[in-house]
Amino acid sequence: MANQLNRLSNLRAIAPTKSAIFSSFCTDSVQLQSGSNNEADNLQEKNRQDQVRKLSTLLRKKRFKSARTTMVSLVLPGSPFSSPADLISVFSQSFPSPKPIFTDMLLSICAELKLPDEATEVYNSIRKEGNFPCSSAFKLFLESLVSSGHYNRTIDIFWEVINSGFRVDRFAYSKAIESAVKLGDLTKAMNLLNYMKRHGVSPNAFIYNVLINGFCKEKRTEDARKLFDEMIETKVTATMFTYSTLIAGYCKVFDMENALEIQRRMKGENMESNLVTFNTLIDGYGRICQFENCFEILNEMENKGIVPNEITYGSLVYNLCKDGRLCEAELIMRDMENRKIIPNAQIYNSLIMANIEERKMEDAKRIVEEMKGRGLLPNEDTYCILIKGHCGVKDFVGAYGWYRELIQNGLVLNMAVCNELICGLREEGMESEILSIRDYMNKQTQCRRSKFSKVIERGRGSIRSCSNHKHRPISFFI
After folding, report:
1. What's the domain range around 425?
2. Rounded to the nearest 10 degrees, how much is the dihedral formed by the CA atoms of 413, 419, 424, 428?
3. Would residue 139 count as lying in a domain?
4. HSE (CB half, 13 Å, CA atoms) of 56?
5. 242 belongs to a structural domain
6. Dist CA 99 CA 73 (whole Å)
7. Beta carbons of 71 and 105 less than 8 angstroms apart
8. Most CB contacts within 10 A, which of 29, 45, 82, 102?
9. Structural contact between residues 88 and 103, judged by C-beta atoms closer than 8 angstroms
C-alpha cells in the first residue's frame, strides 16, 4: 500500500497542472500565429518584389504597352503596394536605372485614371529628387487636376514650376488661366495672361475663349470685347465658341445691338449661326419684350433649315407670359403641337404661373388638365405655383386640394409653402387639415434627418474602412 501511495505521489509531481497546460497552449498558439503572420508577410513581400521585377523587365525591353497594363493593376485597389509612393520606393531600391521612364508612366496613369491625389503624390516624388516629368505626363497631370476641380493646386504647381526655373509651354499657362477663371478670380487670370505675354508665349484661341467666357458670365462685356478685339489684332482665329459666347454675353446685359453686330461679323467670317446662337438671340429679344425681332429671327432660322426645339419655344412662351401676352403664348404652344414638339413641364408652368398672376384660376386648372392629358404629370414646381396662387386669392380650400393631390402623387412640398397654407387654413378654422399638414411636415423633417444620419454614417464607415485599408488614403473614399 505504501508503495502504491509513493508511486501516485510521484505521478502527481510529474503531471503538469491545468494552468501550465493552458499557458503552454497559449504560447504555442502565439508562436504559431506569429509564424503564420511572418509567412504571410514574406509572401506579400515576395509578391511585391516579383511585380517590380516584372515591371522592370518590361520597361527594359521597351514593352511599354504590357508595362502599362501591369502598372495600372498596381495602382488600383487590391494592389500589394499601399500607394504610388510605396511602389516608387520599392522600384527605386531594386532597379534605379529605368526610373524616369517608370515615374513618367506612373504619373500619366494616375492622371488618366482621374486620381489627382495619387498623381500629385507621384509628381511630388519626382520633384523631390530634382527631376521634372516629361511634357506629355505633365500635361495629363495638369488636365486631371483641372477636370477634378483642383484649381488652387493647379495654380500652385504652375508657380512652383516657374519659380524653379523651368520654362512652361502654352498648355500649362492655359490650365493655370482656366483654373483662375473657374475660381472666379479674373484679376489673377489676367495677371497670368500678361505674365505669359511678357515671357514671349502668345495666347491661343482656347485661352482667349476661357477669358471671354469668364468675363461674359460676370456681365463684364466691355472686358470681353477688348479680348475679342485683341484676338483679331493678333491674328488669332475666333471660333464659333468665341462668337456664341460674346453674343450670349451681350444678350445677358440686354445689349442686342452689339449682339447682332457680333453675329454679322461671324457671317463675314463664313460662320453660319447655329441653333444655339439663334436661341440665344430669341431669348435676348424676348427678355426686353421685342417680340417682333424674336419672330424675325425665328423665320430666319427656319429659312436656313434650322428646326426650332423646345428651348426655342420655351423661351418664347416664358417671355410672352412674363409680359402678360397669354394668348400669343398659347398660340406658340399650339404651333409646337403642330410641329410634333411636346412642351415640357417648365413650359406648362410658365403658362400656369401667368394665368394665376392674372387671377385666371380656371384657365390655370384647364392647362393642368391639358398637361395631364398629354401624359405629363405636374411636378413640385407646378403644385407650388398652384398652392401659392390660390393662397394669394384667399382660396385656401382650393390650395388645400392641390396640396392633397401633391401628396397623393408622392411629391414633396416646400416647407415655406406649407407654412403659408397653414396660416390661410387657420383663417378658415380648418384645424384637422392643419394637423394633417403638420404631421406631413414632421415626417419630412424626420426623413431628412434620417437621410443626413445615413450620409454621416457612410462617411464614418468609409473612414473606418480606410483606417484598416492600406491601399488608399482617406481622400480616395470620401
Report:
1. 395-478
2. 100
3. yes
4. 18
5. no
6. 18
7. yes
8. 102
9. yes
Over residues 402-425, mean pLDDT? 89
The pLDDT tens digits of the residues spanning 75-103 come to: 888 777 878 888 888 887 776 655 888 88
Phi, psi of 99 (to 5 degrees): -60, -45
**DSSP codes, 251-320:** HHTT-HHHHHHHHHHHHHTT----HHHHHHHHHHHHHTT-HHHHHHHHHHHHHTTPPP-HHHHHHHHHHH
Number of independent structural domains in the chain: 2
- DSSP state letter for 472: S
Measured from the Cβ of residue 424, the count of other Cβ atoms closer than 10 Å reads 21
Summary mean pLDDT of the chain: 85
Residues in CB range of 464: below 8 A, 6 or more apart: none
- The count of other CB atoms within 10 Å of the CB of residue 25 is 10
Q: Which residues contact 409 (CB under 8 A, 6 or more apart)?
A: 377, 378
pLDDT reading at 226 higher than 80: yes
Q: Which three cell numbers stand for residue 80?
A: 500589394
Residues 6 or more apart in contact with residue 193 via CB below 8 angstroms: 173, 177, 203, 207, 211
pLDDT in tens, 239-257: 999 999 999 999 999 999 9
Could you write out the DSSP letters of every residue in 428-460? HT-HHHHHHHHHHHHHHHHHHHHHHHHHHHHHH
* Nearest CA-CA partner of 51 in 68, 37, 65, 71: 71
**Encoded amino acid at 466, one letter:** C
Describe the crossing of helices 116-128 and 151-163 by its angle, rounded to 10 degrees: 10
Model pLDDT, residue 147: 95
**Closest CA relative to residue 185, chosen from 155, 226, 221:** 155
The tens digit of pLDDT for each residue in 156-188 reads 999 999 999 888 999 999 999 999 999 999 999
Say if residues 351 and 358 touch (Cβ distance below 8 Å): no
Packing angle of the helix pair 186-198, 205-217 (nearest 10 deg):
160
End-to-end CA distance of the chain: 79
Q: Which of 132, 148, 164 is the C-terminal boundary of a domain?
A: 148
User: Could you report the per-residue pLDDT of 36-72, keeping only the tens digit for each?
Assistant: 556 656 777 777 888 778 878 888 888 888 888 888 8
Residue 163: per-residue pLDDT = 93
Neighbouring residues of 256: CB distance < 8 A, sequence distance ≥ 6: 250, 281, 284, 285, 288, 290, 293
Judge whether 262 lies within some domain: no
Q: Domain end: 123, 148, 173, which one?
A: 148
In degrees and rounded to multiples of 5, residue 16 shows phi and psi of -75, 150
| pLDDT greater than 80 at residue 420 | yes
